[in-house]
Write a structure and sequence with these properties.
The chain has about 525 residues and is an alpha+beta fold. Helices cover about 35% and strands about 20% of the residues. The chain is globular, with a radius of gyration of 23 Å.
């Protein structure tokens, strides 16, 4: 194998995935001017960008800060708002008034008491998240997760963002070119030139000739020009597990300029899918994601329009249709090519994992960047092992939302929810059997960087109405957390909510302040 020093990284494709990866690498590695890497991004000037999602996880705060970005500038230029978790409506039985939260804050006393046991023993009639965490109460009242005096990226309550994906890519591009020294080639990729050893030697472009490199990052979206089309790395479809393959998306203006901005993503279950509702400062992003095997485009569009109309929107919305094949690549790093973003896989928008997987991939590529070609295959093996595990855990967690639904009859006219209950991944089925007698714990998810922690499984599991059965009776050891300790933490969560609600501004008020004055720099 050629032992070439890695001096030039070429990122094929822009959008959120390409520019976020470029920002992560360029801000974390020595630049070409100091004897380090040259980073070049080639982006077609004509291909429209498909936003991988308008929701992020709290990890995005650290990603933006590490890249040297200003949170105030980000929120102004990307039409961003705060996201404190997700609210799930009508997922359990389809009843119009049922809901539960998956907040970003851990349950109060997580790891220091048997919260699930305490909830079941004394408070089983109260939603678990609203008992164990203060954050659902902030969401219900439309509170922001911080105050005007809170520094950039700091939080009173843990938060991520809702954002305009198109503007986000433009914002990152500007920062990469003006501040981080990333080289830019606006051109079409017309072919791939292989090296005699099987690696990619260069990309052939329409206007700029050959673009050589040592490591190539495939951010070309679902077409996956490098990893998929050139190398032929197999795509592993997951439609047999998670059925959604189509989305209808619309942008809906607020009825009034002072309408409240939601603190969370809302996901409302439908006959054959669900509708997302995301609040930005200037509009709402609403979409219906569904299974084309269980309903027609016309039925899905009628459901979307009914939702928009019922929530105060106009009657004449014209949605944009997006079709996708849920799944992921058999490998993500092959020879000298790494796929990040839609080129590596996509499942569905539930729980906003798409941008988070871009962050995780960029961060691991930064940490594992091989100094020479000789180390690259070992780095690729580690990367592939980690990301195969992560994609499998994303699928398990998303499927958890569906398999516990009790929607039947009129709430399941197409058999969509029944079919979901009948197709459970083997690992998830095993965990559900264990969780019949004990709550999800860190023993079930032992990786240092789990995609979803055990606390998230508890929020969804108990929010969906799952009730454990008595397990083996154990004698508590001195100092060991137990059911009796849970009530103190429930009271603590309630007290925090009581104190925070009057102290925190509403979302629109804080966002208006940020536009005018910004946030204090940390």
């Amino acid at each position: 194998m050629v032992s070439t020093t890695i001096r030039h990284v070429v990122i094929a494709g822009g959008g959120s995935a390409g520019w976020l990866t470029a920002a992560t690498l360029a801000s974390g590695l020595q630049t070409e001017e100091r004897g380090g890497l040259r980073i070049t991004l080639i982006e077609s000037p004509d291909v429209p960008i498909i936003g991988v999602g308008e929701g992020t996880w709290p990890t995005m705060r650290d990603t933006l800060r590490a890249a040297g970005l200003s949170e105030s500038a980000f929120m102004r230029e990307c039409d961003a708002a705060f996201k404190q978790g997700s609210r799930f409506n009508r997922w359990v039985t389809g009843a119009p008034d049922e809901h539960y939260f998956h907040p970003f804050v851990l349950p109060q006393g997580w790891g220091d008491a048997d919260l699930a046991g305490g909830w079941l023993a004394r408070h089983g009639d109260m939603p678990f998240a609203e008992l164990a965490s203060y954050q659902p109460h902030l969401c219900l009242q439309g509170r922001a997760p911080k105050q005007a005096a809170t520094p950039e990226f700091a939080a009173v309550a843990n938060y991520g963002y809702h954002l305009d994906a198109g503007k986000f890519g433009v914002f990152l591009k500007k920062h990469c070119l003006e501040q981080l020294g990333v080289h830019y080639v606006p051109d079409h990729i017309t072919g791939v030139v292989p090296h005699e050893n099987g690696d990619i030697a260069a990309l052939r472009t329409r206007e700029h000739g050959l673009l050589p490199g040592d490591l190539f990052v495939d951010c070309t979206g679902m077409q996956s020009l490098l990893l998929g089309k050139h190398f032929g790395v197999a795509f592993l479809p997951q439609r047999g597990v998670l059925f959604n393959d189509t989305a209808l998306a619309v942008q809906v203006p607020y009825a009034s300029a002072d309408d409240p901005i939601a603190s969370q993503t809302s996901a409302t279950a439908q006959d054959a899918g669900w509708i997302w509702d995301i609040g930005l400062p200037t509009r709402r992003g609403i979409g219906h994601v569904y299974s084309s095997a269980h309903t027609s485009d016309e039925q899905a569009q009628a459901a979307l329009r009914a939702y928009v109309r019922a929530s105060g929107g106009p009657d004449d919305v014209v949605p944009r249709k997006l079709s996708f094949e849920p799944g992921y690549r058999e490998r993500f790093w092959h020879r000298n090519c790494v796929a990040i973003g839609l080129s590596s896989g996509f499942i569905e928008p539930l729980e906003a994992s798409a941008l988070a997987m871009v962050e995780l991939a960029g961060a691991m590529l930064l940490e594992e960047m091989p100094p020479t070609r000789a180390e690259m295959d070992l780095c690729a093996q580690r990367f592939n092992t980690v990301f195969t595990y992560r994609w499998e855990r994303v699928i398990d967690f998303l499927k958890l939302h569906y398999v516990l639904s009790r929607r039947t009859g009129g709430a399941d006219p197409h058999g969509y929810w029944r079919d979901n209950r009948e197709t459970v991944p083997e690992r998830l089925a095993g965990l559900l059997a264990l969780w019949r007698h004990r709550p999800p714990s860190r023993l079930d998810f032992d990786r240092i960087q789990e995609v979803f922690p055990a606390a998230s499984y508890q929020y969804v599991l108990y929010g969906m109405g799952f009730r454990p059965e008595p397990g083996v009776a154990r004698r508590a050891r001195p100092g060991e957390p137990g059911v009796q300790d849970a009530d103190a933490f429930f009271r603590q969560a309630a007290e925090l909510a009581r104190r925070m609600l009057p102290a925190l501004p509403d979302n629109r008020g804080l966002l208006a302040h940020i536009v005018r004055h910004g946030l204090p720099r940390a």
